[in-house]
């Protein structure tokens, strides 16, 4: 709901301006801005789909207008949006916690930070190299008179992530309470401060959220039944024996799992894949002492 409110309330464009201020003056800066903005917005929405629809609607036209190829603009957007799946507070990590039988959500959120930063650095290096090769120019600078405003609105727009992560890590709020407070804060910001989300538009935001959440609840219910059937048929132990029969080297097993998830990830969305594959693969990796968070 927080991500939907921010998407409809114009917070994505303010996050983009904040990212332009940070990295826009580097060659190929708009591609880097796209990556940084996706990290920031994904950090709040936790959704690659919300990231593409919000940041992409601002960044793709801006990149094309500044001479970037259309296919490259789209490629950067969808590649950088994946950060929203990894960096906290990703709802995919919450789904994994449910599927894995209650792994600490706070630990999962902390574990997503370093991979998210590594992905951002890799995207920015790639963007810089391609920009030099193709001659893409820097982003237009933010006027000095607007820097203070851009910083203020950037920090305000990123505050929901601070509320969620700060509340959970400090132990003041549970994950659910932090999410609820972030929803209220985002609504006040979008409707009463920026006034880009009128009360009449709130119905569509709630409708889109209800549609997504209903789908996730159905997936959780179906995966619970699926997990019971797997356990009854002893399929996880059979798959564990199969993989350990191929190799007892944990690195080889992890490479096989990565290839499997890559192939399944092409046709399958993230949420159902987490809910379906976790009961199958988790016993495999825990059998050689791997931490469920990793």
Describe the secondary structure blueprint for this structure.
Blueprint lengths: L1 H7 L2 H13 L5 H17 L2 H18 L4 H12 L1 H4 L4 H9 L5 H7 L1 H22 L9 H27 L4 H19 L8 H32 L1 H12 L3 H16 L4 H17 L8
Overview of the structural elements:
With 294 residues, the chain is mostly helical. It has helices at residues 2-8, 11-23, 29-45, 48-65, 70-81, 83-86, 91-99, 105-111, 113-134, 144-170, 175-193, 202-233, 235-246, 250-265, 270-286. The two termini are 28 Å apart.
Report the major sheet: none
Class of secondary structure makeup = mainly alpha
**What is the oligomer described by this structure?**
single chain
What are the segments in which pLDDT stays under 50 over at least 5 consecutive residues? none
Taken in chain order, the helices and strands follow as: HHHHHHHHHHHHHHH
Features:
294 residues, mainly alpha, globular
């Amino acid at each position: 709901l927080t991500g939907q409110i921010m998407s409809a309330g114009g917070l994505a464009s303010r996050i983009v301006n904040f990212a332009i201020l940070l990295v826009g003056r580097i060659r190929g800066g708009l591609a880097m801005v796209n990556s940084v903005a996706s990290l920031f917005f994904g950090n709040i929405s936790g959704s690659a789909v919300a990231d593409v629809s919000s940041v992409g609607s601002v960044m793709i036209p801006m990149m094309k207008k500044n001479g970037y190829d259309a296919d490259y603009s789209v490629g950067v957007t969808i590649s950088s949006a994946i950060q929203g799946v990894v960096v906290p507070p990703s709802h995919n990590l919450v789904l994994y916690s449910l599927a894995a039988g209650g792994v600490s959500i706070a630990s999962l959120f902390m574990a997503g930070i370093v991979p998210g930063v590594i992905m951002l650095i890799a995207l920015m290096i790639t963007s810089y190299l391609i920009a030099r090769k193709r001659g893409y120019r820097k982003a237009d600078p933010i006027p000095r008179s607007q820097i203070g405003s851009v910083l203020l609105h950037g920090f305000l727009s990123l505050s929901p992530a601070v509320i969620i992560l700060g509340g959970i890590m400090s132990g003041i709020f549970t994950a659910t309470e932090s999410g609820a407070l972030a929803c209220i804060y985002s609504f006040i910001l979008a409707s009463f401060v920026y006034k880009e989300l009128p009360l009449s538009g709130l119905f569509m935001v709630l409708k889109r959220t209800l549609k997504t959440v209903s789908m996730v609840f159905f997936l959780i219910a179906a995966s619970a039944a699926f997990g019971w059937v797997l356990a009854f048929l002893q399929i996880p132990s059979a798959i564990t024996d199969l993989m350990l029969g191929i190799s007892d080297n944990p690195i080889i097993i992890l490479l096989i799992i990565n290839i499997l998830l890559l192939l399944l990830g092409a046709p399958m969305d993230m949420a159902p894949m987490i809910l379906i594959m976790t009961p199958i693969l988790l016993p495999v990796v825990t059998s050689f002492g791997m931490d469920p968070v990793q």
